[in-house]
Amino acid sequence: MGKRYGTTDRWSLTSANRLAGRHCWILALAGLFVSQTAAAAGLPPVSFTSQAVYPSLNPFGNWEALANPLTGLPSLCVETDVWTLSGGALLAPDIRMDDDEAITGYLQRTEDEVERRLCQYLRNHPELGPVSVTPQECLSYTDDLVVIDIEDAIGPASLGRHAPARQLELIEALKMRIAVARRVFPHAKLSLFGVIKPHHKARYDDTVFRERMDGYRLAGTLGLFDDLDYFSPSVYVRWGLEDRSYDTFKAYTIMAIEESANLPGAKPLAPYLSLRVFNVRSKHDTWLVSPEVAHWQLAYLESHPDVQRVVYWAQKKPGLEPEDPARNRPGKYYIAAPEILSFFRALDPCGR
User: Fold this and answer.
1) C-alpha angle with apex 179: 173 to 182, nearest 5 degrees?
2) What does pLDDT average to over the chain?
3) Of the candidates 242, 282, 256, 156, which has an alpha carbon nearest to the alpha carbon of residue 202?
4) How far is Cα 288 from Cα 216, in angstroms, rounded to an integer?
5) What is the pLDDT of residues 325-346, one digit of tens each?
6) Burial degree of 205 (CB within 10 A; 0-12, 13-18, 19+)
7) Measured between alpha carbons, how far is residue 206 from residues 3, 29, 198, 211, 311 in Å?
8) What pTM was estimated for this model as a whole?
9) Residues 6+ apart with CB under 8 A from 55
10) Is 209 within 8 Å of 169 (Cβ atoms)?
């Protein structure tokens, strides 16, 4: 079964769950469910999101066990009111830093092209709520939180790594895409993922991190964030218990929140947390986050005045093409819904 964090006995699991739950599930459960007690106490809502789908509304069955997550759990509530809108929906694909041709192509995309792509995306995703996509208009009527996820060489975390002239071009390209999203989602709350992305060991003096912060500050000064309602800093867990950098989780969580809150044009925060360790250099890559980290991060975020929502992200299982076995394999960081619900029933986090 491999190594585990602590013991499962502390969670009072059944013997069957002990076999399945070696890595402990409190973070996944906190991410999926928020108690009525917590809401009444004025704590920020806790939401769950995947790759641009509502888990409970996904028509493809990738989250089939979450289709009715509250069956038998009437005292609990689940919030799936956050969309993670991938960059591809805005003609902003993943691009490497050394792929200058692809970056140039990205910069040459027009506003009309981007809007047509987003409208096509909405047309192909009926699970994303009430929309009107006709030759005359392209609108979504959702009032949920839509988080734009543009990463790699063209994302906000990489702005400071480019030459000054290219930085200005990239900021304008991001501003245009945010403006398109604002037109198409006039009632939604908009956020930008990765503002900020902290250093994975919380080193403020690291050259790459300092360049990253310079890029964020320039972007804020030039109005990149003006049409946003939130920032979504990444506070994904990068290290596990056997990693030498494990104890930095508090420092890089604080770094992500404080540096985001102090940017020019700062917005309220809706940070993204992970259910698993995301780091190929970690001995615990893909392991579930330890209870110690899960509890501390959630408590810290709930207490911070700039945090208005806590969002947990997990990878959606592929499977939109069942006839293709290669496409139907779970993603690396996928978490099966039946296991989540099983641990949820055993742990009863709404008792907190």
Assistant:
1) 145
2) 75
3) 256
4) 30
5) 444 455 566 665 555 554 344 4
6) exposed
7) 32, 34, 11, 9, 27
8) 0.78
9) 48, 62, 63, 66, 80, 337
10) no
